Amino acid sequence: MALNIKPLSDRVLIEPVAAETKTASGIFIPDNAKEKPQKGTVVAVGKGTKDHEMTVKVGDSVLYGKYAGTELKLDGKDYLIMREDDILAIV
Hints:
The protein is an all-beta fold and 91 residues long. Helix content is 0%, strand content 36%.
């Protein structure tokens, strides 16, 4: 299903990975203690600016800062929209 959103300029739309629900040793983590994910998949990319060519592309798995981006909900899913500069690495 295609999204009806197109980021402008040097912005990127990211779908965060689901937060861990269980530790490596098998202990379940309650919802209020879950860490905010810092990894996600690029869903849509803007065209960039004349001074900034886009590096990431749709489908890239990326790492981003803990407080980076703006959260939004589309079609019942959570997404983040942020500038490409807020992305720390492509994994």
